[in-house]
Amino acid sequence: xxxxxxxxxxxxxxxxxxxxxxxxxxxxxxxxxxxxxxxxxxxxxxxxxxxxxxxxxxxxxxxxxxxxxxxxxxxxxxxxxxxxxxxxxxxxxxxxxxxxxxxxxxxxxxxxxxxxxxxxxxxxxxxxxxxxxxxxxxxxxxxxxxxxxxxxxxxxxxxxxxxxxxxxxxxxxxxxxxxxxxxxxxxxxxxxxxxxxxxxxxxxxxxxxxxxxxxxxxxxxxxxxxxxxxxxxxxxxxxxxxxxxxxxxxxxxxxxxxxxxxxxxxxxxxxxxxxxxxxxxxxxx
Length: 285
Fold this sequence. Notes:
Oligomer: single chain
Low-confidence stretches: 1-7, 277-285
CATH class of the largest domain: Alpha Beta
CATH superfamily of the largest domain: SPOUT methyltransferase, trefoil knot domain
Number of strands: 12
Number of helices: 10
CATH architecture of the largest domain: 3-Layer(aba) Sandwich
Number of domains: 2
Distance between the termini: 66 Å
Shape: elongated
Strand order of the largest sheet: 8-7-6-11-9-12-10
Structural class: alpha/beta
Largest sheet: 7 strands, parallel
């Protein structure tokens, strides 16, 4: 064992009681799927903790189960020496986290929060996503992962949308939730702010609308994604500049929100990448 590893191991403080304040804070944060009063989010799993480190998040506390102590050693030296690191009996750890098969590491991390105005300012970097009532955490996780993969500027979460701090959202996003600028907003306020900023509003539709390959998805753009069952709220549809339909087999009633958002984001990225080349070719001619 190296001196560094020994130092990391020596940092672990053993806790046996389920009523310990830190353990209760972790359990409560996971159960609520929201930030703690001090703005900390509960995360779990080796890969997710590695993503949090890579994303530059500030750690409040790290929790390690007895059986995972050896594999957690590589993480601890990467976390600031001021961070509380505790060792829990396997049963106590399992009772504090939501996973049926825990990996043995969890943490409370400080979340970087954005305002509506700050996310709107990111719209020059790429299309904004506005999520209207997506309740499935797996779908929102997929959307956030695709948002980062295809260069979205940020994400606005409307009312009725699952919390981004839900453990299944964090896990499904594969760490993208730590890096994509996102804010909660009332949909009516988001529409008004986007209009004021001169952003073009586009929404996906199951059947009616401009075929995706014919839609204009360049420029300053906001893509609205509705819920899995009901789609976009009816009062928002007249506010859209364009409805876009993704062609698919008639045997399939609709695509889920995560898949639909990913496809539209890919097409928007493709159009952004191809437009400068077309413009350059025109100038040469």
